[in-house]
Design brief:
Strand order of the largest sheet: 2-1-3-4-5
Number of strands: 5
Structural class: alpha/beta
Distance between the termini: 63 Å
Order of helices and strands: HHEHEHEHEEHHHHHH
CATH superfamily of the largest domain: Glucose-6-phosphate isomerase like protein, domain 1
Helix content: 40-55%
Number of domains: 2
Radius of gyration: 23 Å
Strand content: 5-15%
CATH architecture of the largest domain: 3-Layer(aba) Sandwich
Largest sheet: 5 strands, parallel
C-alpha cells in the first residue's frame, strides 16, 4: 500500500468510538454529581482496555526497545488528540530519562500549529506524514507508532505506509477492533475502549487509554535501555530545575549511602549525572573512570555495581 492507497470509509457508524453509550444518553440531564461519577466509571474502564491489550503492548515494548538499543529512533504519528499525546510523550522523555531529543520524536497532522489549535482537514492528508518522515530521515533501523483512536485516520495510515516503504518497523495503535478498521502495520495494538460518554469524542476514554499505553511503552523501553534502576529514574536531568536537582541528590544519598552534603559534592563532580556519582562513590573511582566503567556496563547501573563487570580501571586514589 502506498500513501495514496488508503481510503477511509465514508460511513463510520460501525466504529465503536462513534457509537452512543446507553449509560450517558441523558448526560445533559444528569446532576453534576451523577455526571462526575459517570465520567469516573468510564475512565476506569480505560484501564481494563489497556490490561486486555497486554500481549500486544508487551510485543510493542520489546520491538521498540530492540530498535532503540540498536541505535534506531521511535517516531509517533497522529492527528488531533492522538497526535498531541504522541508529542507529549516524546517531549517528556529527555527530562525524565536524559535521552537525546532525536531518539523519540513525534509528528502531528497540521504541524506545530495543531498543538494548540485544531487544524481541520490535516488528518485527511495521507501523504503528509510520509513527507515529514522522509525529511527526518526515517530508515530501516527505526520504528514508527501510528496513533488513530478510531483507526481510520488517513494521516496515520500514510505514516505506516511510509515506514513499510523504507523497511522501518511499524505499530498501529487504535481504540477500535481490527475487523472494523484494519491496518497494515507489522504489529497492531488495539484498545477496546468502546463508546464514549460523549459520542465520538475520543479525547475522553480513548485518549485516556492511549496515554496509559504511551506511558507504559516509553517507561518500560527506557528501563530496558538501562535508564531505570529499580524504580528510580537514575538518568533524570538534574540540572533542569530545582525539583529535579533535589531528586538527584536524594537518589545519590540512597544509592550511594551518603548524606546530602556528600551527595551534592558527588553530583557536582559527576557533572550532574546520578549514575556516575553513585559509581564514583561505590567503586572509589574518579569521574572519567566511573564513566568508562558505566560505558563498559552498557550504561546499566546495576550491572556496573556488580563484580561481573571488569573493575580494572584506575581509581581516584
Amino acid at each position: 500500500m502506498t500513501t495514496e492507497d488508503y481510503r477511509p470509509p465514508a460511513d463510520r457508524s460501525h466504529l465503536t468510538t462513534e457509537r452512543t453509550l446507553p449509560e450517558s444518553e441523558d448526560l445533559d440531564c444528569l446532576t453534576t454529581s451523577e455526571a462526575v461519577r459517570l465520567c469516573a466509571r468510564a475512565d476506569a474502564a480505560a484501564a481494563g482496555a489497556v490490561a486486555r491489550a497486554g500481549p500486544s503492548l508487551t510485543a510493542a515494548v520489546d520491538l521498540v526497545a530492540g530498535r532503540l538499543a540498536g541505535g534506531g529512533r521511535l517516531f509517533y504519528a497522529g492527528a488531533g488528540t492522538s497526535g498531541r499525546l504522541g508529542v507529549l510523550d516524546a517531549a517528556e522523555c529527555p527530562p525524565t530519562f536524559q535521552s537525546e531529543p532525536e531518539q523519540v520524536q513525534a509528528l502531528i497532522a497540521g504541524g506545530s500549529e495543531a498543538l494548540t489549535r485544531a487544524v481541520e482537514g490535516a488528518e485527511d492528508d495521507a501523504t503528509a506524514a510520509g513527507h515529514e518522515l522522509a525529511r527526518r530521515g526515517l530508515n530501516a533501523g527505526d520504528v514508527l507508532i501510528a496513533i488513530s483512536a478510531g483507526g481510520t485516520t488517513p494521516y496515520a495510515h500514510g505514516a505506516v505506509a511510509a515506514a513499510r516503504a523504507v523497511g522501518a518497523a511499524s505499530v498501529f495503535l487504535a481504540c477500535t477492533p481490527f475487523a472494523d478498521a484494519p491496518d497494515r502495520a507489522d504489529l497492531t495494538l488495539r484498545l477496546d475502549t468502546g463508546p464514549e460518554i460523549l459520542a465520538g469524542s475520543t479525547r475522553l476514554k480513548a485518549g485516556t487509554a492511549t496515554k496509559m499505553v504511551l506511558n507504559t511503552l516509553t517507561t518500560l523501553v527506557m528501563a530496558r535501555l538501562g535508564k531505570v534502576h529499580g524504580n528510580r529514574m537514575v538518568d533524570v536531568t538534574t540540572g533542569a530545575n530545582a525539583k529535579l536537582h533535589d531528586r538527584g541528590l536524594r537518589l545519590v544519598c540512597e544509592l550511594a549511602g551518603v548524606d546530602r552534603a556528600r551527595a551534592g559534592e558527588l553530583l557536582d563532580a559527576a557533572g550532574g549525572h546520578v549514575k556516575t556519582a553513585v559509581v564514583m562513590e561505590q567503586l572509589e573511582l574518579d569521574r572519567a573512570a566511573a564513566q568508562a566503567h558505566l560505558a563498559a556496563a552498557g550504561g546499566v547501573l546495576r550491572r556496573a555495581l556488580t563484580p561481573a563487570v571488569d573493575r580494572a580501571l584506575p581509581s581516584r586514589h
